[in-house]
Specification:
By secondary structure, the protein is α/β, with parallel strands linked by helices. It has 12 helices and 9 strands. The longest helix has 25 residues. Bound molecules: S-adenosylmethionine.
């Protein structure tokens, strides 16, 4: 596939992620009243192991994010990199956990679609208007900027352009900032993701980076996963870093981050609140326990921090 086709396939992954999330939500894995406004209902049922995987992914990332919000008492920023149709802004608002400002970045084409949905659906636009104060709210086809929520169309592979656009939207590099990349870095070359991590580490003195993506891809099962994605024209340019938990951690440490952790999703699953895990395990009968465990061992959450103000970010863990 040529360059543009490869980017197009990457953008398609955003649709996939949201369709799967919407399906899992419709079965009752977690609550998200907003995802229905961004994607259609899945044509077919998703397998229980897929739903459980998404449950662990969403709960695992939320757990770390909320730990950061608590440490900083919401006096912070969130920068969601490759956010796609993520509904986190609305969910945090409902939980009274909005940071000072929440930023999202994705390709301009994805951002345009997201903004179109927001503009045409009052349950999405109302919370943005409600939390806005001051001058007029900026909203055009490629960006949105309000007091608490901002969406930026940019290519994450070009960090100076990214920084310039974020700063136009009042990014404050001196506020504690958590950056999240959920299934995003794998689509960039190791050099490109290293640049992004390095940019983030050198831009924010007090920060945390959360990365969710594939791991253990060098084994047989990992090879099959790669082949499946490639069949859909997806260019996994960064899959080399997804070799092991060690290589994931090393990438963070080599690019300016400290206190790096990397754990596979089976571990994450075992650390989630067990009463809720029990509840979701009763939603659907899972026949293929082994397949579920294999899948979960091939995804991970990695996180690292930088903490010149001693907020205790290094203590954040499951
Ligand atoms: N983070 C969202 C989630 O987990 O639901 C979406 C995940 S989706 C698999 C990957 C997202 O990253 C897509 O929305 C894609 O457009 C975005 N993305 C990938 N490479 C990008 C780049 N170089 N610049 C901006 N966005 C990018």
């Amino acid at each position: 596939a040529g360059m543009d086709e490869a980017d197009e396939a990457v953008r398609g992954t955003c649709e996939d992620a949201s369709v799967c999330k919407r399906f899992a939500v419709s079965v009752g894995y977690w609550k998200d009243p907003y995802i229905q406004y961004f994607v259609r209902q899945a044509k077919e049922r998703k397998a229980p192991e897929i739903n459980r995987g998404y449950y662990a992914r969403v709960q695992g990332v939320s757990y770390l994010l909320e730990a950061f919000l608590k440490k900083t008492e919401c006096n912070c920023q969130i920068v969601n990199l490759g956010a796609g149709m993520d509904t986190l802004f609305w969910r945090l608002k409902d939980e009274n956990l909005l940071p000072r400002k929440y930023f999202e970045v994705d390709f301009p084409m994805i951002v345009a679609r997201k903004i179109h949905n927001i503009k045409s659906k009052p349950p999405l636009s109302k919370p943005i208007i409600e939390t806005h104060s001051g001058d007029s709210l900026l909203i055009d086809s490629h960006s949105l900027d309000s007091s608490r929520y901002s969406i930026v169309g940019a290519d994450l592979r070009f960090s100076s352009d990214l920084e310039e656009k974020l700063k136009k939207h009042q990014l404050d590099v001196h506020l504690p900032t958590v950056l999240v990349a959920e299934c995003v870095l794998v689509y960039m070359t190791p050099q490109q993701s290293a640049n992004l991590l390095k940019w983030a580490a050198s831009t924010f003195p007090v920060a945390m980076f959360i990365n969710y993506e594939q791991v253990n891809m060098a084994d047989r099962f990992g090879q099959i996963m790669i082949e499946n994605l490639q069949r859909r024209q997806c260019n996994l340019a960064g899959v080399e870093v997804c070799r092991s938990l060690e290589s994931q951690k090393e990438r963070l440490l080599l690019n300016g981050w400290e206190n790096a952790h990397a754990i596979d999703m089976m571990k994450v699953y075992s650390f989630l609140p067990q009463a809720d895990v029990k509840r979701i395990e009763e939603l659907e009968f899972l026949d293929e326990k082994e397949l579920f465990e294999q899948l979960m061992q091939h995804y991970c959450i990695c996180w690292a921090s930088k903490d010149s103000s001693n907020l205790g970010l290094a203590d954040i863990t499951f």
